[in-house]
Amino acid sequence: MAVVAGVVFFAVRALLALFPALTAAHPIKKWSAAAAVVAAAFYLLLSGAEVATQRSFFMTAVVLIAVMVDRRAVTFRTLAVAAMIVLAIAPEALVHPSFQMSFAATLGLVALVQIGMPRLFATAEHSATARVALWGGREIMVLLLASLVAGFATTPYAAFHFHRITPYGVLANLAAMPVVSAVVMPAGLLGLAAMPFGFDGFFWWLMGLGIDWMISVTQWVAGLPGAVGRVSAFGIGPLIAASGGIILLGLLRTPLRWSGAALLLLATLWAARVPQPDILISADGRLVGVRGPDGRLHLMHAAKGSKDAFLVREWLAADADARTADDATLGAGISGDDTGCVTASSSGALVAWARRPEALADDCERAALIVTIRQPPAACGASVIDGERLGRQGALALRRGRDGFVVDAVKPGGIDRPWSKAIAEDGETDSAVLAPAPRAVDATPSDADLQAEE
Q1: Please, what is the Cα angle at 267 between 261 and 269, to 5 degrees?
Q2: What are the pLDDT digits (tens) for 138-176?
Q3: What is the pLDDT of residues 360-411, one digit of tens each?
Q4: Side-chain-side CA neighbours of residue 36 (13 Å)
Q5: Contact 207, 190 (CB under 8 A)
Q6: Residue 345: how many CA atoms within 13 Å on its side-chain side?
């Protein structure tokens, strides 16, 4: 958005400057800003008007309007106005990663411009810094700092929503962004302008070269050792604390702003100590993940499908597990047949997944917890998660309590909403124990088993 508006602004201003009469008698800078606003609005509609693009447009528009009315452009007020406009149009955007990451990165960049840049470059005219700047050192330093600040500000939100961080993002930005800004975007604009006249082929070729370079850079960075840092899922509390730390670091100008760094450290420690659920159950009851004695998830599920594969990838990512959805170890420790499966949890208690009614009788005698979409027997000795409860609450996450399994979080509507703390019908946290005292796995056959075999 900034490249589009900037190219139009400087192109229109340079064109108008060719006429001395206009330059002397009229505010061509303000006219250029008005033309840039129109171009940015056209690009907003052309791109689909996603939340991040809306934020970019509103901030760009406020900056250009500030130029038109002779006011300072890049300020925290600009960011605040853009946030209020986006939330007034779509309040639900507040919980989306696009809104959070976009505004966090912009807050960091505005703080860099307002606080960091004047101190960094407030040097004598003939100092070593000034001499380096003549050779482009200042531009490289600004690009490096902008990438570092934006990456740092968006890290908590990337870890919360996508369960991963990219420590080498700075390298990718340094190598790709100059080409994107200087080649890809200008070539795209020129190709769009030349399309009605049939002269756009060269510009698309040039744009393709820039995109190929960007893809090569991303593949190279992604292939570096440790390029992807996996983060296990954590609750909303650490994210709110991290957001408060970023706001304090970005807005305050006194030494009190370093309290934001302490808040960020607290949020990091808090997120690292959040316990992971022991059992995950999909909203339709087709997929059950149980944390085994080895500390990793093991899966019991029906016939594999694209939806199941997506859920498995989501669960593994939230568990900071590097395995893929088709990894053979996901089924280790699972015993069963087409009627159902059973496996041991980390505590030794048996968890059963009953696919058919005939499996429920045996599971009720042996298992501590049964997951099924069937109607369980009235005298079942195990606690049951059935289709009725799944239909009422959606996907469930269970953790190990003192006396059994406890509902820790729910995911209403299936896979498209974040996990939240389970709330009972009376409004209190649903901390009721779902399973009796764990039944240890006993490999010794009982008398009844021996008689059945005979």
Answers
A1: 105
A2: 667 777 788 888 888 999 999 998 888 888 888 888 888
A3: 877 888 888 888 887 777 777 777 888 777 777 778 888 777 666 777 667 6
A4: 31
A5: no
A6: 28
Give me the sign of the Cα torsion angle 386, 388, 394, 400.
negative
Q: Return the closest-CA partner of residue 276 out of 320, 335, 342.
A: 320
| Sheet with 340-344, edge to edge strand ranges | 335-337, 340-344, 350-354, 369-372, 383-385
Question: Global pTM?
Answer: 0.74
Q: What Rg do the C-alpha atoms of the chain give, in angstroms?
A: 29
Q: Is 264 exposed, middle or buried (0-12, 13-18, 19+ CB in 10 A)?
A: buried
E strand residue ranges, 90-173: 164-165
Q: What is the 3-state secondary structure (H, E, C) of 401-436?
A: CCCCEEEEEEECCCCCCCCEECECCCCCECCCECCC
> Tokens 């600009």, residue?
78
In whole angstroms, what is the distance from residue 369 CA to residue 404 CA?
A: 9
